[in-house]
Amino acid sequence: MSSGTGITDADGHPVAVTITAGGPAPRDPAGPAPAAPEAGSVPPPRIGIRLTPRTGELLWSCTPEAARELAAELLRAAEETENAPAGHPVTVEAGRLRRGDVRDGDRAMTVESARTDGSTVHVTWKSGAGRTWTQAYAADAAIALKRRLPEGR
User: Fold this and answer.
1) Which residues have a Cβ under 8 Å from the Cβ of 46 and sit 6 or more positions away?
2) Which tens digit of pLDDT belongs to each residue from 59-68?
3) What is the mean pLDDT of residues 124-152?
4) CB contact at 8 A, 38 and 62
5) What does the alpha-carbon distance between residue 111 and residue 90 come to, in Å, rounded to a whole number?
6) How many Å apart are CA 23 and CA 44, to the nearest integer?
7) Most Cβ neighbours (<10 Å): which of 4, 10, 29, 146?
């Protein structure tokens, strides 16, 4: 991971993030010393995490299990954020639909694929229950969306 991750500090400034597999992030010599391991014991593997905001540097480390838990929580929060309804629906032409767009309405319908055939767009929808079906629309038909993923996703 690097500074191009989109992670920012509270003021919106980019924060470089470095993840180190197989060992802790290097310790700040001015900081507190880590607890000494028991004699003869092998310390568990660690994942190093270095955050470098404008105001300094933060060094953290965790076990692989804790890293997986953090990743799961980040994924849950990302999905929750992306699935939150927008303040108002967005309307796009059927010809501009893309995978992941969510139709505005009472039931969840997500675009699985959209294929243009001349002036007709064939949209394959997937319901929240997992059923799929295809509908044909005029390419310029207005489709109201509850949520639209960013470009490039």
Assistant:
1) 22, 23, 24, 61, 62, 63
2) 889 999 999 9
3) 86
4) no
5) 14
6) 9
7) 146
For the range 85-90, what are the long-range contacts, defined as Cβ-Cβ under 8 Å and sequence gap of 24 or more?
85/146, 85/147, 86/146, 86/147, 89/144, 89/145, 89/146, 90/144, 90/145, 90/148
Q: What is the maximum span of the chain, computed from C-alpha positions, in angstroms?
A: 75
The residue count for the chain: 153
Q: For position 87, what pLDDT does the model report?
A: 63
Q: Is 20 exposed, middle or buried (0-12, 13-18, 19+ CB in 10 A)?
A: middle
| Three-state secondary-structure class, residue 130 | coil
Query: What tokens were used for 75?
Result: 């994924």
Rounded to whole angstroms, the Cα distance separating 82 from 47 reads 28
